[in-house]
Design brief:
Strand content of chain B: under 5%
Number of helices of chain A: 1
Oligomer: heterodimer
CATH superfamily of chain A: Immunoglobulins
CATH class of chain A: Mainly Beta
Structural class of chain A: mainly beta
Number of domains of chain A: 1
Structural class of chain B: mainly alpha
Distance between the termini of chain B: 80 Å
CATH architecture of chain A: Sandwich
Number of strands of chain B: 2
Distance between the termini of chain A: 80 Å
Helix content of chain B: over 70%
Strand order of the largest sheet of chain B: 1-2
Radius of gyration of chain A: 23 Å
Largest sheet of chain A: 5 strands, antiparallel
Low-confidence stretches of chain A: none
Shape of chain B: elongated
């Protein structure tokens, strides 16, 4: 009986020890810092191909509803070749619109793409990025 | 006055002698039969038996396992003490369980730290929460498995004490059995010489 109680006590101690988890040390972790504001999710994302068929310089124009400036300093634009594969960050803007293909490092070739946007807010030397918007499909014709 | 003093001293000496005789019974002291010795030969036999037992004890001290050394061995490497007490299966089970538990704990801890580093570097709110949860879960598993390792270690420490005592008891029995095979034997009744 004593042996069983000792084993139960040890298991209880272990469970309690394991419950004492890791500390939230990330300075922009909103769950660990009450003064950190999470940027709102970007809504009403729309996109359209601007360039005419046959043109070499393809442009895709994006617009979305601007977030409250209190919680947002800028936006990231992401692109992927398919819905579920990894997304690459292709642009960073501070307004609620973006033209993909307008900058020298942009490369927009004909094809099917998925885009998404997220808002960010600066905290010292780091940026806290909010949730991703809904993904939209864009087909760039030759 | 002087006569009464002398008489008092005389009485004191006599009563002191009587009291001393009551305290120290010389007859009981000199009675050899109280040890079970009927005569001088019995006393010599007893001495011989005692000498033989001392010899056996000396052999026992050489062949037995020191408890402190075994405890230290098992504290350093679980199962080592059990190996010394000629219990290899038990030792292998203990060291296997310990290595398994502590190895798993280390793997989970390493995974936990990997996720924790990612958590610290993450800047997207979803990733921050995701990496933190993964790090915490792996850390809980690491703590639990390390705890299991601790339980195995504690059991190993308890077991090495029991194993050493059992081993030493068996060594004593073996020494007695070996001695039984020889011409001169020690029995509860005394020494026995076989021809």
């Amino acid at each position: 009986m004593k042996k069983r109680s000792a084993i139960l006590f040890l298991i209880l101690v272990l469970v309690l020890l394991s419950a004492c988890g890791l500390r939230r040390k990330n300075p922009i972790d909103p769950y660990g810092n009450s003064d950190i504001l999470v940027p709102d999710v970007v809504i009403n994302l729309t996109g359209s191909v601007q360039s005419s068929p046959g043109s070499t310089n393809k442009l895709v124009n994006f617009n979305w509803t601007a977030n409250n400036p209190f919680s947002t300093d800028g936006y990231y634009l992401y692109r992927s070749m398919s819905f579920n594969s990894s997304y690459a960050r292709i642009d960073t803007v501070t307004v609620n619109s973006c033209i993909h293909g307008s900058k020298p490092w942009h490369s927009v070739t004909p094809g099917d793409y998925w885009y998404k946007v997220s808002a960010w807010k600066s905290y010292n030397d780091r940026r806290l990025e909010g949730p991703y918007s809904d993904r939209i499909f864009i087909r760039v014709n030759p | 006055m002087r006569k009464s003093h002398i008489l008092f001293l005389l009485l004191l000496v006599i009563s002191g002698g009587l009291f001393a005789q009551l305290r120290f019974d010389i007859e009981a002291f000199s009675d050899t039969t109280k040890y079970g010795w009927e005569d001088y030969a019995a006393r010599a036999d007893y001495r011989s038996e005692l000498y033989n037992r001392q010899q056996l004890l000396h052999i026992y001290e050489l062949e037995s396992q020191p408890l402190t050394a075994n405890i230290l061995k098992s504290a350093l490497v679980p199962g080592w003490g059990q190996f010394s007490t000629n219990a290899p299966v038990k030792a292998e089970i203990i060291i296997g369980a310990e290595v398994l538990a502590m190895g798993t704990a280390f793997l989970f801890y390493d995974r936990s730290m990997n996720y924790y580093r990612k958590y610290q570097n993450a800047s997207q709110v979803g990733e921050i929460e995701d990496y933190y949860k993964k790090a915490r879960t792996a850390n809980q598993y690491a703590t639990l498995t390390a705890g299991l390792g601790l339980i195995v270690w504690i059991y190993n420490m308890y077991d090495v004490i029991v194993s050493t005592e059992e081993y030493n008891a068996s060594i004593w029995q073996k020494i007695l059995e070996r001695n039984r095979d020889s011409a001169l034997q020690i029995t509860p009744e005394g020494l026995e010489l076989r021809f």
